[in-house]
Amino acid sequence: MTNRLALIIVIIIIGLLALDYVRYDWAHTLFLARKSVALIEWMAFWR
Hints:
Layout lengths: L2 H22 L2 H19 L2
């Protein structure tokens, strides 16, 4: 991965987080965070 591609990906992620904050009041980010925690706990169970 080149530095330019990494920078583009970071800009896209920051833009999507800003859009979620402005438009949806963190609803999608919180949903994904909660589902990620549940997935990590589920995977730890199978360890």
